[in-house]
Automatic annotation (TrEMBL):
Domain of life of the native organism: Bacteria
Record carries keyword Transmembrane: yes
Organism per entry: Mobilitalea sibirica
Protein name: LiaF transmembrane domain-containing protein
A Pfam family per the record: LiaF-TM
Keywords, alphabetical: Membrane, Transmembrane, Transmembrane helix
């Protein structure tokens, strides 16, 4: 449901841009794509859609806050530098997350359903990994039930070559001015559903041709970044 909503939002975004440009060409109204501070929307929009798709992850939320602060610096006359607020805003958000995550975060339980292909699909026991202006390496050598990856001005490497995957799993990923490398094990299939904005997904893996093999479903949004599957 969230993936469908995020795709709908992206569709509406491009429709509005297209209608705006068409109206300007026909002299129906004034419309400027490259207004002052327009580039901050390249941070705000992907992060906002990622928050809808995968929840309030660290990477998407921090990226959204940074984008909003930078946008306000162009639209509002402030007597201080917004750049100086970015680090305090990140620290405050991380602190609030540490304090309240145990109180408001619901425990995750394994939920299994049957796909048309007959494979079990697990939506529980998922992990979440986020990075902002840094590089994070994750190596999984036990049972893998899915994860969420968020990279903003950084990089994430997810190594699943030694992971145990006995059923279909889902990976939700978003990268904004960042890169994500995913190493998958042999004997699994990979299916991708990507929203590319000046970015994309490259699949160089040797996927299994066995129709009964477990499948990794990758749902991703790439904005000036890319995901490499190896």
């Amino acid at each position: 449901m969230r993936n469908k909503l995020s795709n709908t939002l992206w569709g509406l975004f491009f429709i509005v841009i297209g209608i705006g440009i068409a109206g300007r060409v026909m002299n129906l109204w004034e419309f400027e794509v490259f207004f002052e501070g327009w580039w901050t929307l390249l941070i705000i929009i992907p992060c906002f859609i990622s928050m809808i798709q995968s929840g309030f992850g660290v990477g998407s939320t921090v990226g959204f806050l940074i984008g909003v602060l930078l946008f306000l610096s162009y639209r509002v006359d402030l007597n201080f530098s917004v750049w100086q607020l970015i680090v305090p805003a990140i620290l405050i958000y991380i602190g609030l997350r540490f304090i309240f995550q145990s109180a408001f975060r619901k425990p995750i339980h394994i939920e299994k359903s049957i796909h048309v292909e007959g494979q079990q699909y697990s939506s529980g026991d998922k992990t979440e990994h986020s990075t902002v202006f840094s590089h994070q390496r994750i190596r999984v050598d036990n049972e893998f039930n899915g994860t969420s990856l968020n990279a903003v001005f950084g990089a994430i490497t997810l190594d699943l070559r030694d992971a145990i995957i006995n059923h279909d799993v889902e990976i939700n990923a978003s990268c904004v001015f960042a890169g994500i490398d995913i190493y998958i094990p042999r004997g699994v299939q990979i299916k991708t559903n990507n929203v590319p904005i000046f970015g994309g997904v490259s699949n160089k893996s040797m996927s299994s041709h066995d129709p009964g093999a477990p499948t990794i479903y990758l749902n991703s949004t790439c904005m000036f970044g890319g995901i490499d599957i190896k």
